[in-house]
Specification:
The protein is an alpha+beta fold. The chain folds into two domains: 59 residues, Ubiquitin Ligase Nedd4, Chain: W (Single Sheet), CATH 2.20.70; 44 residues. 31% of the residues lie in helices and 36% in strands. The chain is built from three helices and seven strands, in the order βββββββααα. The chain has a four-stranded antiparallel β-sheet, with no helix packed on it. Strand 3 and strand 4 form a beta hairpin. Helix 1 runs parallel beside helix 3 and helix 2 crosses helix 3. It is rod-shaped.
C-alpha cells in the first residue's frame, strides 16, 4: 500500500491494490468489476474510493438466481400466438427468449412450425 499526500488540496491518496472483485449493487442491477485497481482518497469531508480499470460484468436483478428478467404482457403473448398460430405458452416462451422482440418471436415460431411440417 502506498500513500500520497496532496497537501495543497488537503487530500491523501492510498493505493489499496488490485481487487479480485468489486460489487456495486444498484436497484435494477449489480455491476461486477474484476481486477480493478482500488485507490482510497481521504478528504476532510470523508473517504472516497476510486475504481480504475478491470473487467466490467453487468447483471440484471435476478440473473444470479436464474430468474427471468422479462415477463411479457398478456397482450403481447396473445398477439404473437395469433400471428404465429401457436399456443399462448409457446408464444410467451418465445417472447421471453427474444426479450420482448415481437417480430423476432413471431418469425422464430413461424420458422419452427415450417420446419416441423417438412
Amino acid at each position: 500500500m502506498q500513500e500520497r499526500m496532496l497537501s495543497s488540496m488537503g487530500l491523501t491518496m492510498e493505493e489499496l491494490g488490485q481487487a479480485k472483485q468489486v460489487l456495486i449493487d444498484l436497484e435494477d442491477r449489480t455491476i461486477k468489476i474484476r481486477g480493478a485497481s482500488v485507490i482510497a482518497v481521504n478528504t476532510q469531508s470523508g473517504r472516497m474510493f476510486q475504481i480504475v480499470g478491470g473487467e466490467e460484468i453487468s447483471e440484471s436483478e435476478g440473473a444470479e438466481t436464474g430468474a427471468t428478467t422479462y415477463e411479457p404482457s398478456q397482450e403481447d403473448v396473445a398477439l404473437v400466438a395469433s400471428q404465429a398460430e401457436v399456443e399462448l405458452e409457446e408464444a410467451r416462451q418465445a417472447l421471453v427468449e427474444t426479450e420482448g422482440d415481437l417480430a423476432r418471436a413471431i418469425l422464430s415460431l413461424r420458422m419452427k412450425r415450417a420446419g416441423q411440417r417438412r
